[in-house]
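Possible regression after last week's pipeline update?

I re-ran a chain I had predicted before the update to compare outputs. Posting the input and the new output here so someone can diff against the archived version. Not blocking, just want to make sure nothing changed silently.
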Amino acid sequence: MEEAKKNVWQIERHINLLDDRMLEYAEKIEGLIFQHKLPIKRFETLRYPERQAYLVEKGYSKTLKSRHLPNKYGKSEAVDYVVFIDNRWSWDIAHHYWFEFLGELVMDNYSSHIQWGGRWKSFRDLPHYQLR
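New output (post-update):
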């Protein structure tokens, strides 16, 4: 793990890196993805502070207090899902309808337990879901 901490590019995708409460909803989100045959995959769970600082510096995130950072149990309370088409990750604006579709599905079912970054006013973060 020390090596991963040093590597700002290291992407942690493993579902076991999620807080148990977020894990429950991530599994439900992935059930919706499967049920609707969406071209979306889990992109990132846990982040180290160095990666979060890098994402803020580049403008991809607006806070150093992300819910992706380890909580007191060393787990993430957030997960990102990204469009995955032709064996490539895509944040292309042309694919935003997939983010919107999934986000609305998730919020219709679980909005009392989790937040979707696509509904934030100051910074829309379409791939992002976190515990309330």
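Follow-up from reviewer: compared with the archived run. The radius of gyration is 14 Å. Marking as no regression found.
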